[in-house]
């Protein structure tokens, strides 16, 4: 099996964080919780930042 570069590992982690943030956002909107929406937005911003960082590092 081929070794993944650090940028590829970071991109994989970023995708997982983005999916988690998206799922949290859907659940937060379903329940109508503002605090959960803010937390989901923070996850989405963090995941997006990681993905951009990984793309520039590659």
Explain what this protein looks like in three dimensions:
With 58 residues, the chain is mostly helical. Helices cover 86% and strands 0% of the residues. The protein contains 2 helices and no strands. The two termini are 20 Å apart. The relative contact order is 0.23.
Query: Proportion of β residues?
Result: under 5%
Mean pLDDT: 91
> By helix and strand content, what is the structural category?
mainly alpha
Helix share bin: over 70%
| Shape label | elongated
Question: Which segments are poorly predicted (pLDDT under 50) over 5 or more consecutive residues?
Answer: none
Distance between the termini: 20 Å
Radius of gyration using CA atoms only = 14 Å
**Number of discrete helical segments:** 2
What oligomeric state do these chains adopt?
single chain
Largest sheet: none
Order of helices and strands: HH
Number of strands: 0
